Every structure is written in structure tokens, then in C-alpha cells.
Amino acid sequence: MIGAYGHESAGLKELLQKYAAELNGKSGIVIGTQHPWVEVMLLNVGVNHVTTVDYNTITIEHPNISVISVTNLAEKNLDGRFQPADFAVSFSSIEHAGLGRYGDPVNPYGDLESAAQTWCMLKPGGLFFLGVPANFGKRKGKIRFNGDRVYGEARLEHLTANFLELERRPFGYDGIITLRKPLSD
Q1: Domain architecture of the chain: domains with CATH
Q2: What is the C-alpha to C-alpha distance for residues 109 and 100, in angstroms, rounded to an integer?
Q3: What is the per-residue pLDDT across 4-34, written as a single tens digit (0 to 9) for each?
């Protein structure tokens, strides 16, 4: 098995390999993780450095992976020490934001704010690989208590606002949307 999600993990690996030339030698962020399987995939396609951002304290011991809490990242951003990233990956993370399940504050717009914050953390032209439970082609989604959100087109439109959509692919239960921050705001 590749990663933590079987078929969906293989789909992410396929997309990262497709964009490997653009990712090679770059530095970026992974939003939310419990095990560094996404980070390993990124290093395998030639990424130079990955910073994992999470609400919880996690330990990853690898010279090309660093970990930062959401709070510390916000502080770095406010005092000007944060360097924008070349790319970002979120797989099975943003759909939980704002539901309180992983220690984050309850906020009905937490997922939309997380996606907007990701946009702000990217360099112009930066890629964003977004993996979320999705009902592509259906207008409505749903929230499953504090477990997660399943996205319909209506909320996906808001989640991906301001990004250019390069492609979307259904993989099992999840969908992976490849986005790019425009070169000019």
C-alpha cells in the first residue's frame, strides 16, 4: 500500500509524479499529518524541503522535513520571518478544519479560511494539491458531525476561490484538485 489511504494515496502519487519537474528542488508545505507519507512522496519526486504544519505536536526526524505548529507559523508570518512556499499539499486535512476534532477551534468557515491561508503562504505561481472528500458534479455536500465535510460543487467553489484550477480527479472516496496561485494577484 502507498500512503495511508490506498487508492487515493496512489492517485496523489500519480499527480505528484506528473508535476515532478516543477516540484524538483523546491520547498513547500504539507498541511496536517499524522504520519509523514505525503512528505515521503514529495521527497521521492525531488522536492528539496518540506515543512509540515499541524495543530498537534508531532515529531518527524528527517533532515529535509521540518514541523511547525499553526500558532508558530502565524507568529512567523506576522513578524515577517515566513518565506512563501513553492507548493502546498493538503490531503484529508482541510475538510476537518473548524470542526474541533483535532484540537482546532470550532469555526464553520475553518476550511475556507485554511484554504485562503494556504493561498497567502504560496509564492505566485505556486501549486496546491488539495485532497478532500468530494461529490464532483453534485451541488450539495454535507458535514458529518465533527468528523469531516464532504464537498459538493457549491462549497468547492468557495474552497478553491482565487486559485486557478488545473485539474481534478476522483480517487475512491476523495477527490484531488490541482490548483495554482495566479502569477499576479
Answers
A1: 7-180 (3.40.50.150)
A2: 12
A3: 656 567 889 999 999 999 999 999 999 988 7
